[in-house]
Write a structure and sequence with these properties.
- Helix content is 49%, strand content 23%.
- With 201 residues, the protein is α+β, with helices and mostly antiparallel strands.
- The protein has a domain of 125 residues: Jelly Rolls (Sandwich).
- The strands form two sheets. A five-stranded antiparallel beta sheet has the order 1-2-9-4-7.
- A hairpin with a 2-residue loop joins strand 5 and strand 6.
Length: 201
């Protein structure tokens, strides 16, 4: 289900003004025209291995995740809440086949822009490319910190960091997915939660 966006989506406006505070309404209108809204039900697969990802999407409502499947087991790489951009950047940038799944954890609505439209905006709007690079830098830092935490921090520390930085994940996502995101088993997550509860964190 999709339809052209006739006005500036509030989620889009908030996202772009956060990254690019002095962006004009005219620029926002031009950008918004390149998006279409897509609705997905919980469990819908948005991207699967072998597909080429030719889009980026801003989550307006709901929750989306990406994950790998190794030997039949899911390994969650990220959760995307409202206001976050979801894509397979490797597939998107290189034009290569995706190696991940992207699906809806909850019913969701996503504003999607095709790659060719993004490239068009780079020509139309001065500063658009710099804005994209600024956002990708933020993503790189976040992903690097997460990767370091998975390698260096014990399970309890990882969980406490998640509670502090992104409590909505623990509140809204099934715990078996949270465990996968933290790189631990559901049983270990249960023990960690119980220990923290007893200690009164």
């Amino acid at each position: 289900m999709q339809q052209p966006m006739s006005t500036i989506n509030p989620s889009l406006q908030k996202f772009y003004q956060k990254i690019w505070p002095d962006i004009s309404i005219e620029m926002l209108e031009t950008i918004s025209e390149k998006y279409t809204t897509h609705s997905y039900k919980r469990g819908d697969v948005i991207l699967k291995p072998g597909d080429v990802c030719e889009w980026t999407g801003l989550v307006n409502e709901g929750i989306v995740r990406y994950y790998h499947v190794v030997d039949g087991k899911e390994h969650v790489g990220q959760f995307f809440m409202p206001g976050m951009i979801v894509s397979d950047y490797v597939s998107y940038i290189e034009g290569s086949a995706a190696r991940i799944y992207i699906d809806a954890v909850k019913d969701c609505e996503i504003s999607i822009m095709r790659k060719e439209d993004s490239e068009c905006l780079r020509q139309l709007i001065p500063g658009y490319l710099e804005m994209i690079l600024k956002y990708l830098n933020l993503i790189y830092i976040s992903n690097f910190e997460r990767y370091s935490s998975l390698l260096l921090d014990p399970a309890e520390t990882r969980y406490l960091k998640l509670l502090k930085s992104r409590p909505e994940i623990v509140q809204q996502v099934p715990l078996y997915m949270v465990a996968s995101f933290l790189g631990i088993t559901p049983e270990m997550l249960s023990r960690v939660r119980k220990k923290i509860s007893v200690q009164g964190h």
